[in-house]
Design goal:
The chain is built from 4 helices and no strands. It is mostly helical. It has one domain. Helix 2 packs across helix 3 and helix 3 packs antiparallel against helix 4. It starts with a helix and ends in a 30-residue tail after the last helix.
């Protein structure tokens, strides 16, 4: 695949993703792309399934980029917390400690544990009114709701 083919694919995928974000169906996307690019500029088997594949690939690419960005931001936050911890640790651990520094160190440690997922999950119980049991009513699509 040449550079011009890669650029055409990238343009097409960006276009179909924009249409999907705007709420277009895959059938509408396939038709709109056919109008915009022409049959000779689209893959031979172009149809709504191919449009779906293009949208999926773009979303996968975005997830990867967002995941990498989140990892970089998390690492930067950890570096900041480490720097703050270094600045306060001596004051918090000396023979006559600064109790404000101890409090701040504990807050930093709590935030680091949250970022890294170090704490055991908190158990939560959900109950109905006044602590009683929850009741559910399941409605099926073909069920008459009257």
């Amino acid at each position: 695949m040449g550079t011009s083919d890669l650029l055409a694919t990238a343009k097409r995928r960006a276009y179909v993703l924009r249409l999907r974000k705007a709420g277009a169906t895959y059938r509408e996307i396939a038709g709109a792309a056919l109008e915009k690019f022409g049959a000779d500029q689209l893959p031979e088997t172009w149809d709504c399934r191919y449009a779906h594949k293009d949208v999926s690939r773009e979303l996968d690419k975005l997830r990867t980029v967002i995941g990498e960005d989140a990892d970089e931001i998390r690492q930067m936050e950890l570096e900041r917390l480490n720097d703050m911890l270094k600045a306060l640790y001596a004051s918090a651990t000396r023979r006559n400690p600064d109790y404000g520094a101890i409090d701040r160190v504990l807050k930093i440690m709590r935030r680091r544990a949250e970022l890294l997922g170090l704490d055991a999950p908190q158990r939560q119980e959900i109950s109905g009114p006044e602590g009683g049991a929850l009741t559910f009513h399941v409605v099926y699509e073909d069920e008459d709701t009257e």
